[in-house]
Amino acid sequence: MRLLYITNGFPFPLTSGYLRHYFLLRELGTRHEVTLLSLAGPGFEPGDTAALEPFTVAIETFGGGRRLSLGGKVRRRVRTLAPGSADGPVAAMRDAAGALVRDGAVDAAVFSGKATYPVLAGLGDLPVVVDLCDATSSRLRGGIRHEEPRRIPAVLLEYASVRQVERRLLLRGDQLLFASARDRDALLDGPHPRAVVVPNGVDLDAWSRTTPQLGRDEVVFTGKMSFPPNEHAALHLAKHVMPLVRQAVPGAHLSIVGRDPTARLLRVADAPGVTVTGLVPDVRPYLERASVFAAPLHFGAGIQNKVLEAMAMEVPVVASTVAAAGLRAGDRSEPPVTVADDPAATAAAVVAHLRAAAGGAAPDRAGRRYVEEHFVWRGSAALVEQALGAAVGATDRSWER
């Protein structure tokens, strides 16, 4: 099949938020002719395309502008909603996609991104699989109560604009992809004949333990720390959980590992037993040294890649209900993690794992097995292929009317 793959951020390097598309492209490109059209964000380097050239027949990037503030994102989103509107790079992408469709060069498209919504206008009646991935509006709604008052109006406006784009994407997609059942249910209120849960996978060769023992007295949390759910979770850990942990285990230490820590987060780096690393060349050594991975997210959406990676590295996990919900494979599976929500319960669970590690507990093979069984990229790509087949084979589009 000749596929057009559209993303709103270039899917490399893998420190970006687009690793889902990198691995799906890598799998699909071995069996299909894939043309990639991608918006290029502020961190894009022309050499990044080399990583995807073996899996594509053509790559075209658009833009490469500055990083937008929250206000800038909202203004762009609102402009996106206006009929026929698109800014320069998005308009150029729409025209390039339209030319491919008119030339009969593609059979179907995989489409992702909210900022790229106007590009759909160039696809005509081409069969389209829309990858919504996570329920962004659900994450924004859940995070409002944790926002600074001065930011709430902008977040509310972003929520409203995102929700409108999501509704339009739901209508246009011949097939709809979601990273988890939670995200599907947030936007569709349950299973739907056009909806497919396609979880993220884990590169099991890369995320593989090399040491036979857990670390001692070490709590780890990883992620992009400017991302609001991660920032809030890290602050919660440092301010409310670790003081309780250190009452029971005085030598306990928390490593907050990940790029772009906010000013608020950097201020907690002076707290006893807390280190904020910022960007590191490799997260895996921190997981090798961990006794327990803590993920006390209070709001969020999508699948929790950072937790899956910790599980693949056989690190025991303490997760909030919100984080654990993003680890379910399909509608029924329960991840092998300890679930705790309030500070006292989270601290007690962390202390239990710290003491177990100090007593010589083995790494958590159950977590690794769970990832091996449910979160493998080859299986996820197979689900995308099934969705593409259904989209191409669908002749009844009466649901649009």
Could you explain how this protein is built, in words?
GO terms for molecular function: glycosyltransferase activity. This is Glycosyltransferase. It holds the Pfam family Glyco_trans_1_4. Its EC number is 2.4.1.-. It is an enzyme of class 2 (transferase). The model is unreliable at 395-401 (pLDDT under 50). The protein has helices spanning 19-28, 70-81, 88-102, 136-143, 152-172, 181-188, 228-248, 263-267, 284-288, 305-312, 321-325, 343-358, 365-374, 377-393, and strands at 2-7, 33-40, 58-63, 108-112, 128-133, 175-178, 195-197, 218-222, 253-257, 274-278, 292-295, 317-319, 338-339. It has a 7-stranded parallel β-sheet, sandwiched between helices. Strands 10-9-8-11-12-13 form a 6-stranded parallel β-sheet, with helices on both faces. The protein is built from 14 helices and 13 strands. Helix 4 packs antiparallel against helix 5, helix 7 (228-248) packs across helix 12 and helix 10 (305-312) crosses helix 13 (365-374). 40% of the residues lie in helices and 15% in strands. The chain is of the alpha/beta class and 401 residues long. The two termini are 28 Å apart. Strand 6, helix 6 and strand 7 form a beta-alpha-beta unit. It has 2 domains: 2-201 and 376-400, Glycogen Phosphorylase B (Rossmann fold, 3-Layer(aba) Sandwich); 218-374, 3-Layer(aba) Sandwich (Rossmann fold), CATH 3.40.50.2000.
